[in-house]
Design brief:
single chain, 1457 residues, alpha+beta, 15-stranded antiparallel beta sheet, 8-stranded mixed beta sheet, 40% helix, 16% strand
Length: 1457
């Protein structure tokens, strides 16, 4: 396609380029560090929104019957899901606009005809620019990256710009790919552009309607192709709504439609799982590629209208008002207005007021205001200039909130009056003076008669180049056009209120009854009517409902407002009585003013009741009393009081104060109450106990409009003549502007509240309220009409004691502002004395009051949700795709480190099954339990607001329908499920967990990414604790315990026959390969050895019989807990790997803690972890006690004397204890009995060691988390501190069970160790006694042998035959007897004197040796004679005590004697 280069800014979309965007473009780059948000835009009831990256999220269109129809991407239309999608750059399937396809790998594109074919892939890099044109149309710019097949990294080759707008009911998206280097780019790669680019558009679309009973209900649509050429798509929902899409490529001055292809299409049906694709050729040279996508949302049964001609670049240029001299150049207008204020006042504000005011005006006029159809005869029809209604939060929770209606319409009126004043000030004919009116508008009614009531439209014209665009005369045309828009919108909005609420019998397609609101909000109807009429009277607005037939005769009791207003006798709730008092007063005051209006009456005659003025007077008295009681009550300021601050300043604009001369107006009482408020010093619980009253609100400093109240006071006092100079007033106002500056979002709008669980988050009127005050201050600066000069200020008349007191009352820790000098008039001594008295009282309060909380710590990050909360099959398919290197590498690294299988091949097939079917298969094996806590809307309860969570529990069952729900929970993202806190209980053993690749990959990559280290510790079975702080807070702990169970005799024999170390194999179903890892059987389980079972029979027959039937086994149980949160702590994920905990206990404890500490989530996460850990301690103590009881009762190693006596009496057992020495010596095999006792002691040692190591980790966790709880942040109130201490005490009680058990186990082990030592001593004594008895017997035998020895010898001699001639002849019997006697005597003598003979012989031998030697050698045994005796018992066991040794020696010596 040939495309000529064109340098005309209006042609070929050249005005999108950075250097050609002009002053009508507003950049948001300076707010890139602010909270990310979406950008909403639209025109005439048709609107859309883009996420932070500029991708299309939502669309809306008006409909006669359904009111508003919506279409959005594939995400849930809940608060958290919508907020999360709006803050992302890449929306994935949640967006359906035009973009570069995420996957372009199938395309093989050639760089040029003479080069080889290579694979290219284009993608978007970082976002380099974000902004809008004239505060209406979003614009985003990205760096364009090119991936080549052989290059390792991407190359930046250009930019990709995307802009969106709505024109004539069609949404247009313009995408421009330009080969141009960014000035801030480090390296620019020049690559020929002769390649193709794949574009993605469409996808799963969901539809919804506004006026249905459930406005959040959506129905998914299916895409279908109507024509074979596939030049456009039509996505429909059950023939109700449809979305048509087409894409064109700019080729010179014409558009060429692109063919749309769907990879999964069959015939004319297109699957709704993914987008459609279009392919475009990137032109050669420096020519850009421009694409235009068109979207049309309408009813499906409407006539198929032909597509209008796509507007050209010049037409779009004029329509958007890009030209700085165009009448639609509102960006230039607001910059010029505030620039003039800065020039005249010589004061500059840090707050981007022009961006805030301009964006607020355009958002209300183009998005919030929606045309309404009223019933005409039979059908609902739209009128050409019919009524408009204000829809709050169009794409989040759409509703017609009458409170927001009032404040937004009030802002439009103020904007109109401000522009009228500014236009008059720019005129050379008139220079109005400063006004002293107390109204926040700052312009007296007397000054408005000189302004033309109907400003005529000025045709667009071009100024000469020498006329700068920021000159005031240049923007007069734009001011007139903007005033016409405002006037028309105000008139049509008021007409909606009158026709909907006052005209009887009306029917509309957008009724305010479809939205849920407080009944007191209907008071705003009359307030809005009267405020608009009163403030717009000088400009002669046209109120069309007054001209309707029979308006004066409309009944007041048959209209919608009469049925909606609460009756006067109904008492309001305690929390709303002050608010209702003001609203009721303003309502009846507005009715009275409308009825007595001097000009044409705007209400029917029936509304003018009798004595209405007296009723208003009484209601004024009640409102004053309510304001005074609020001031004198001295109650801490809360966020609920902010609405009273705003209502307090409406009495003058609504002309509600009848008696002007009363001392002290309502506004002055409000000012005093705001000035005297104190900072939040205590944090309150989000929920009290049932029936217990108390405050539940969070710190008021986290609410933006609470800071606005102080700015409102500055606006009220800005034009007054007080002691402060103009410079001081400007500085004071700037102080509170800076406080509000931190609440700005990425599009310069106000974030209502930093608490996401509070309904204040939906205060869409917050920006308009602030913008109204900023316009009031700006208008006063312009009317002051002179620069800041101290010499021109009036003389000081009195001391502003309230202001000085307030300055000193500001806490020093929160005063980030410049110190202000206190100017005192020394002649005004009473005022000084009053100030000193108040300062003395303040000093006493400061000495007792705690410091104010550091409310800046509550500032949320740029994105509320952690990135892990988006993990799902739809949003992050790359995590489930094993073909991507990142996911596979993570799983492999995790499995290698946890299972020690380095160098072994990992089967990747289970990783490819990470889809809904694979998750369903995994759930059949693992009985998971998922506990979800979802934030619920705050609900009023007695005199406080209850803020809490709704809990949902899902458990894997055999029912397929239940598992389908669980599969959806695990495969869908947490933001889509609106889950704020998720807890997963995995009651699976280590073998089961590490035997399933699918489960490990799912947890480590998707379900809970921060649980990877916990799984590794769980597999290693090593007790450990760690706490990680930072942007992600992660705390994990792993504990060991032992639990006793029973097995079958067959299983017992099988286990006892195994070797000491085996391989535990976990076999998985299907194609999932099993994992084998070595396990030491003795380390994970304890069984009674088979060779010791017979010994148990003699010790405990009952235990032996029980062991025969169901043998006992003590298994090692490992439990792990990991809890991770974001930095602030209000989003959490918890995984519990344990077979001990009960899901009901966990859910109850966690839910209560998160609800009660909703304002201090940093403490809540610590208490939640300790609560789960306490429950685990309780279960571990029970298991340890059962295991210890098993060893004690089975082997009877701990039986007291009293128990042993009764056992003997009742003949329960034959034994007292296994370590009873007396009984042990009576058995046949005491060694086996002793081995059985030692086995039991060794088993208890294992229990004790595991318990000791686990308790060390628990104590470490307790110390670390308690220190974080003590740190806060913020000081807890008395009630919240009591709840905190109760939670800690409950944990301590559970921990004490382990402490007591540990002491008891340690005591039993030490006692039985002493029993064992005593038994060893007794056994040694018994052996010694046996030895002594044996020695005595041997001694007797020796004596007998000595006696028989001579007889035997003589007998043997006499037995020798006579022929041997040994004996003397004829010795006879006498000789025999005499020989025996003689020899017997000799033997006894020798035996008795053997020692002396040996010693004499030794001495003789020594003497002979010394006589024969030269030098001589000392004789042996020259030492102590008792040395031989001292070594007599050297071989005795060393375990014997000294007392036992002495006993044995004495016994032996006695026996020897």
């Amino acid at each position: 396609m040939a495309q000529k280069e064109n340098h005309n800014p209006k042609e070929s979309f050249n005005w999108i380029r950075r250097e050609a965007r002009g002053p009508t473009y507003v950049s948001y780059s300076e707010l890139s560090d602010r909270l990310a948000c979406s950008f909403e835009f639209g025109d005439n009831g048709r609107a859309a929104s883009c996420n932070y990256g500029g991708e299309l999220l939502n669309m809306s269109a008006i409909d006669e019957e359904q009111g508003i129809i919506f279409a959005h991407g594939n995400f849930e239309s809940t608060y958290y899901a919508s907020l999360a999608r709006a803050q992302r750059h890449d929306g994935g399937k949640a967006t359906f606009g035009l973009g570069i396809a995420a996957s372009q790998d199938p395309l093989s594109m050639a760089a040029s005809s003479n080069q080889k074919s290579q694979n290219y892939r284009l993608e978007l890099g970082q976002m380099t620019e974000r902004g809008c044109f004239n505060y209406r149309w979003p614009y985003n710019e990205y760096a364009l990256l090119l991936h080549e097949e052989k290059d390792p990294g991407p190359k930046e080759i250009g930019t990709c710009a995307r802009m969106s707008f709505v024109k004539d009911g069609i949404l247009y998206q313009v995408m421009r790919l330009e080969k141009q280097c960014r000035p801030e780019a480090n390296i620019y790669h020049y690559v020929p552009w002769g390649v193709k680019v794949a574009l993605a558009i469409g996808g799963p679309i969901r539809f919804a309607a506004f006026n249905t009973e459930d406005s959040s209900a959506v129905c998914e649509g299916n895409a279908s192709v109507e024509h074979d050429v596939r030049q456009y798509l039509r996505v429909s929902k059950d023939s109700t709504n449809q979305l048509e899409i087409r894409v064109s490529q700019l080729d010179g001055d014409r558009y060429d439609p692109l063919c749309l292809e769907c990879p999964d299409s069959k015939g004319d049906d297109i699957a709704a799982e993914g987008p459609c694709y279009a392919y475009a050729d990137l032109p050669d040279g420096r020519r850009p590629l421009t694409l235009v996508a068109e979207f049309r949302l309408q009813k499906a049964d409407s006539q198929s209208l032909p597509w209008p001609e796509t507007p050209t670049s010049a037409e779009i240029y004029d329509y958007l008002g890009v030209y700085p001299y165009s009448r639609m150049a509102t960006g230039v207008m607001w910059e010029t207005v505030f620039l003039k204020r800065e020039q005249e006042s010589n004061y500059f504000s840090e707050l981007p007021e022009a961006n805030l005011v301009g964006r607020c005006v355009e958002k209300i006029l183009t998005v919030d205001l929606v045309p309404v159809a009223f019933k005409n005869k039979e059908n609902l029809e739209f009128e050409e200039t019919g009524p408009l209604t204000l829809v709050s939060n169009l794409f989040l929770r759409p509703s017609i909130n009458l409170e927001s209606f009032f404040w937004k319409l009030r802002f439009l009126v103020k904007t109109y009056r401000f522009l009228a004043t500014f236009k008059q000030l720019c005129s050379k004919d008139t220079s109005p003076e400063s006004s002293s009116n107390e109204a926040s508008d700052g312009m007296d009614e007397a000054h408005l008669h000189i302004i033309a009531p109907n400003v005529p439209k000025i045709e667009s014209h071009h100024y000469e180049a020498k006329s700068a665009w920021n000159r005031t005369e240049v923007i007069e045309n734009t001011i007139s056009w903007q005033m016409d828009r405002l006037k028309e919108s105000i008139e049509r909005s008021v007409a909606y209120l009158a026709r909907s609420f006052i005209q009887p019998g009306t029917q509309t397609n957008l009724s305010p009854l479809t939205s849920t609101m407080s009944q007191s909000n209907y008071y705003y109807v009359m307030m809005t009517l009267w405020y608009v009429v009163k403030r717009c009277d000088p400009f002669e607005f046209a109120w069309k409902w007054v001209e309707m037939d029979g308006m004066k005769s409309w009944p007041s009791d048959d209209c919608l407002l009469a049925h909606c207003l609460p009756p006067d006798y109904l008492l309001p709730k305690e929390k709303e009585k002050e608010k209702v008092a003001f609203l009721k007063w303003y309502h009846y005051a507005s009715v009275w003013n409308l009825c007595v209006r001097k000009k044409r009456t705007l209400l029917p005659k029936a509304w003018k009741m009798k004595n209405l003025d007296m009723k208003v007077n009484l209601l004024e008295r009640d409102a004053r009393r309510a304001a005074a009681s609020k001031l004198s009550a001295c109650q801490p300021y809360s966020a609920e009081d902010e609405i009273l601050d705003r209502l307090g300043f409406l009495a003058e604009p609504l002309n509600a104060e009848f008696w002007k001369r009363r001392a002290g107006s309502v506004a002055s009482l409000t000012v005093k109450r705001i000035l005297d408020r104190d900072f939040t010093r205590y944090l309150h619980p989000g929920r009290h106990s049932d029936g217990e009253p108390g405050r539940t609100c969070g710190p008021w400093e986290v609410y933006a409009l609470c800071h606005h109240s102080r700015l409102l006071v500055e606006n009220y006092q800005y034009g007054k003549d007080d002691t402060r100079t103009r410079k001081r007033k400007a500085e004071d106002a700037e102080i509170y502007r800076r406080e509000l500056f931190i609440f700005l979002s990425g599009e310069a709008c106000l974030i209502p509240c930093w608490e996401r669980t509070n309904m204040a988050s939906f205060q869409s009127e917050a920006t308009s309220v602030l913008a109204s005050t900023l316009l009031g201050i700006c208008q006063k600066d312009l009317l002051w009409n002179r620069p800041i000069d101290e010499s021109s200020e009036p003389a000081h008349k009195q001391v502003d004691t309230n202001s000085t007191y307030r300055q000193l009352n500001t806490d020093s820790s929160h005063s980030n502002h410049k110190k202000q000098d206190i100017e005192l008039d020394t002649h005004n001594r009473p005022a000084i004395e009053t100030l000193l008295v108040r300062l003395e009282g303040l000093q006493k309060v400061k000495t007792t009051a705690p410091p104010a909380i550091e409310w800046m710590r509550y500032k949320p990050p740029r994105q509320y949700h952690h990135s892990n909360f988006f993990n799902s099959l739809d949003d992050t398919p790359e995590l489930f795709d094993h073909s991507r290197k990142g996911s596979s590498r993570i799983v492999k690294r995790f499995l290698s480190s946890s299972l020690n299988i380095h160098g072994r091949d990992i089967d990747e097939k289970p990783l490819s099954e990470l889809n809904e079917e694979g998750i369903s298969i995994m759930l059949k094996r693992h009985k998971l339990t998922v506990i979800d806590l979802k934030a619920s809307d705050p609900e009023p309860c007695s005199d406080h607001i209850w803020q809490g969570y709704t809990s949902e529990t899902s458990t894997v069952t055999d029912d397929k329908s239940g598992n389908l729900d669980m599969t959806k929970k695990l495969s869908d993202s947490l933001v889509d499920q609106e889950v704020q806190h998720r807890t997963i209980i995995l009651p699976t053993s280590s073998n089961g967990i590490f035997g399933d690749f699918r489960l490990l990959a799912l947890f480590s990559c998707v379900i809970h990414v921060d649980s990877m280290d916990c799984f590794i510790n769980h597999q290693s079975r090593f007790p450990d604790f760690s706490c990680q702080k930072g942007n992600t807070w992660v705390t994990r702990i792993t504990l060991r315990s032992w639990s006793k169970s029973e097995i079958t005799p067959e299983d017992y024999r099988e286990r006892t026959n195994r070797p000491g170390t085996s391989k535990s194999t976990a076999t998985l179903p299907g194609s999932v390969r099993s994992i084998e890892h070595p396990i030491d059987e003795e380390d994970v389980r304890i069984l009674l050895p088979l060779n010791l079972r017979d010994s148990l029979k003699f010790i405990n027959e009952d235990a032996f019989a029980k062991e025969e039937q169901s043998p006992g086994i003590v298994n090692l149980t490992v439990s792990s807990i990991v809890l991770s949160t974001n930095g602030f702590g209000d989003f959490s994920q918890c995984t519990i790997i344990s077979e001990l905990l009960d899901q009901d206990d966990v859910k109850k404890r966690c839910k209560n803690i998160w609800e009660q500490f909703i304002h201090q989530p940093q403490t809540a996460r610590c208490l939640t972890f300790l609560a789960i850990l306490g429950l685990l301690c309780q279960k571990m103590a029970d298991d340890y006690r059962r295991a210890m009881k098993y060893f004690i009762q089975t082997t009877r190693i701990d039986v007291s004397k009293r128990e042993a006596y009764w056992f003997r009496m009742l003949i329960v057992t034959k034994r007292d204890s296994i370590f009873d020495g007396k009984s042990l010596l009576q058995v046949s095999d005491p060694l086996s009995q002793l081995q059985l006792g030692l086995w039991s002691l060794e088993s208890m040692f294992k229990l004790h060691n595991s318990l000791e190591s686990s308790m060390r980790c628990i104590e470490e966790a307790s110390v670390e988390l308690r220190s974080q709880i003590h740190y806060g942040p913020g000081r807890r109130s008395e009630c919240l501190e009591r709840i905190c201490q109760e939670s800690l005490e409950l944990f301590d009680r559970n921990l004490d069970k382990l402490v007591v058990l540990n002491a008891e186990l340690n005591q039993k082990i030490e006692l039985n160790n002493r029993y064992k030592d005593s038994l060893s001593t007794i056994l040694s004594l018994e052996d010694s006694r046996n030895s002594i008895r044996q020695n005595s017997t041997i001694q007797k035998l020796t004596y007998l042998t000595i006696g028989y020895l001579p007889i035997g010898l003589i007998t043997a001699i006499f037995a020798i035959p006579s022929d041997q001639n040994v004996l003397i002849p004829r010795m006879g019997l006498g000789g025999y007897v005499a020989s025996v006697i003689i020899l017997l005597v000799i033997t006894f003598v020798v035996a008795m004197y053997m020692g002396q003979l040996l010693r004499g012989f030794g001495k003789l031998t020594a003497f002979n040796s010394s006589s024969s030697g030269a030098g001589g050698v000392p004789p042996p045994n020259s030492g102590n004679a008792s040395s031989g005796d001292s070594g007599r018992y050297s071989s005795r066991p060393s375990t014997l005590s000294s007392r036992s040794r002495r006993t044995i020696i004495d016994v032996e010596q006695g026996k020897g004697e």
